[in-house]
Design goal:
Shape: elongated
Radius of gyration: 15 Å
Order of helices and strands: EEEHH
Number of helices: 2
Strand order of the largest sheet: 1-2-3
Strand content: 15-25%
Oligomer: single chain
Number of strands: 3
Distance between the termini: 34 Å
Structural class: alpha+beta
Length: about 90
Amino acid sequence: MESSGESDHAFIIRIWKENREVEGASPTWRGVIEHVRSEEKRYLVDFSGVAAFIIPYLQAMGVDTKALHHWTAEYQKPEGSSPKSANLMTNQS
């Protein structure tokens, strides 16, 4: 991660579906997040990895990230549990 003093950060997130070799098995969702400036990357198996990657950059900018834990938890709820649910990394087709 880069040193503090940055006023903004850009990230690229790529998500894809991997079909499993076992017949009838649900596909697995995978992803990668990259910090554009530093080219640091982390591979993802669930949505929480996005927040885990981004939060240190925000903290280096002086952002109080305690409120973000609520935001990320909101998007981890099972589908249909709230109008904001966005269960991106499930094994759905």
